[in-house]
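Hi C.,

You asked whether I'd gotten around to modeling the 394-residue construct. I have! Everything is below, sequence then structure, no commentary in between.
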Amino acid sequence: MTDPIRDAARPFHGDSLTALLPATTRVLGLGEPTHGVEAFPELRNELFRHLVEHEGYRSVVLESDCLMALAVDAHVTAGTGVLDETMERGFSHGWGAYPANRELVAWMRAHNQERPPGERLHFYGMDGPLETAGAASPREALTFLYDHLAPHLDLPVSRADLDGLLGADEPWTNPAVMMDPSASVGRTPEARELRLVADDLRALLTAHSPHLIAATSPDDWWRADLHGRAAAGLLRHHAAMADPSPARVGTLMALRDTMMADNLDAIVRREERRGPTLVFSHNSHLQRSRSSMSWDGRRVEWWSAGAITAERLGDRYAVVAANFGTRGSDVPAPGSLEGILSGLPDARSVVDPKRLAEVLDRKPEHRIPADHTYASLDPSTLDLVDAVVFLREV
């Protein structure tokens, strides 16, 4: 390890990381290279505490179901429900079982208890109501929006007709749809009609927002808008699930990241007067470059939520890519970027990518992961991240 490369890094600390970020940052994306390694959410917790206590951050967003996350937010802000129940029903993808996520929720609740409502930390999910095996029925999201509007406006469809169009939930959530587009109900006449209904209801929510907010509250309107976004996103997703063409997988990936980006956009607008926001997700969802994956022998590419958010926010969006060196028997090659960074003296380092690019005397190799769930850092995209957090071993 040469001295110039060491000069591009500092021991990990909140101050050493924020020193590399634009002063205009309102959304800080902290990525992890793989899910299921506790070292990364633990690092997230440490960073979030620093950001709250020293940088004025007032919210955190996780790669979890945006509707389920409402239960977590109610718990941390108002003490609704007990912690065990909140962890069980407030997270998708099994994230509620992770000790670091439990620690985060407990710390946020304790932090909020002695503070007035306007200063309390908020918790959000940015993902749609999606799981690996498929997507939720649009019933919960669409009926929530309908029931919010119905006491105040004349609606273009009755509740009974809406229930009839939705039908039973089982066809929507049929796991066979993931591999068999013909099993999907996403392009039935009823599903097409539901997309029009969702669009009409969302338009009414916006058109009558001054009246609705006065009659309910800003928070009630925001939750209705969240459910409207989720309903529209789910109906688009189910329609794409029914697509038998080779473009199906790429479309599904793009639609998921679009839902994430739209949720982040709404969170930024809600939080803009309170403080910046930390977002924690996989690197592939937060990066400014295109995301990609191999599927059935083909390379599938799409624009990530981070790339879309970066276009919307400009220098108000900053992204930090986290990665690691050794994991068990998976040791990076010496010529890879991770192999080079493994020579840093500290177990956890913050690396300035611009300085690193200046002092590297050769182009690093792209690490070939031993685990397909792990995404190594692409050396060619270092100029698209504001900082790298590197853990020598996990």
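If it helps when you're writing up: DSSP finds 17 helices and twelve strands in the chain.

Thanks,
B.
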